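Form P-L/3: holo structure prediction, ligand adenosine-5'-triphosphate.
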Amino acid sequence: MIVAKGLKRTYKSRGKPVEAVRGIDLTVREGEIVGFLGPNGAGKTTTLKMLCTLLEPTGGDAEVVGCDLRADPVGVRRRIGYVSQAGSTASNALAGEEIVSHARLYGIGKAEAERRGRALLDALDLADVWDRKCGSLSGGQRRRLDIVMGLIHEPRLVFLDEPSTGLDPQSRANLWDHIRGLRDRMGTTIFLTTHYMDEADALSDRILVIDHGAIVAEGTPAALKAGVSGDTITLSFADHETAERAADIAGSLDGADTPEVEDAVLRFRVPNGGTALPQVFSALGQAGLTPIGVEVKRPTLDDVFLTMTGRSLRD
Ligand SMILES: Nc1ncnc2c1ncn2[C@@H]1O[C@H](COP(=O)(O)OP(=O)(O)OP(=O)(O)O)[C@@H](O)[C@H]1O
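OUTPUT (holo model):
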């Protein structure tokens, strides 16, 4: 669906070059949901806009749904759907009118547009909004309506730019269900940008992590997390001195990473938290030390990012 080679975009800002995307390679296969994850300003939207023909690359090439990005941008546009961050419906217009007029832009007849529109609304749990003003819909409903618009010409590939930004947790989870459903029922390939780790984790078959305009990691969410060594064990003690004594003991355990103590909290890494914990408790017990709190944390995508870049995705 997408093969990009050396894709690059340099902006000019106050006479100075800004290398937003520094020559990236990426491949997206048919039927995949690929999450493009990175912090603010990493180059996600710039990449997306280039792949959607909204922005000309300053270097590199790409083929999107079989069409060359530079030689056949119209071919690309006919074959893709694009759901922008800003949304595409006017508040005062009726949802049904917006769908039909959008479909007409693709040369779809009115009756066919209405048939497809109603079927898509139904699929996205919006069956009763045809005669409602777009501005009267909830945030989640309006995002789903945007997706209906992006799918009206039945593209095989759809780009979603930050799909759940601004939605409450329940609407986000509901939107994710619908996005997965589209792929499962219709086989639509989905390429989405996000700076939310949970969104990338919950939705994507494969994740590309971008930072400073370059791809720094790629893989399934599980493989990326497995690449980060070990689980983190956090133990709380009554005071700093006890935590320091516990740190000496934890540090001598097999496979344990250099322990860190902050106030009365000890944190260290082990290859497997579940199997290490009984050993930790037994060793601490022999020294007469008892933690007052314990937490075992599996690696998150933020740990992946931290390992790759030395910074947190949240920074
Ligand atoms: N029109 C422009 N002119 C100059 N610099 C730009 C322009 N658009 C984006 N940039 C810069 O390019 C870099 C990448 O921006 P981009 O919007 O692609 O990042 P992003 O990962 O999509 O971020 P966000 O999550 O905030 O949308 C940033 O440093 C941004 O300031």
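COMMENT: Residues 11, 13, 18, 20, 38, 40-46, 195 surround adenosine-5'-triphosphate (CB under 6 Å).
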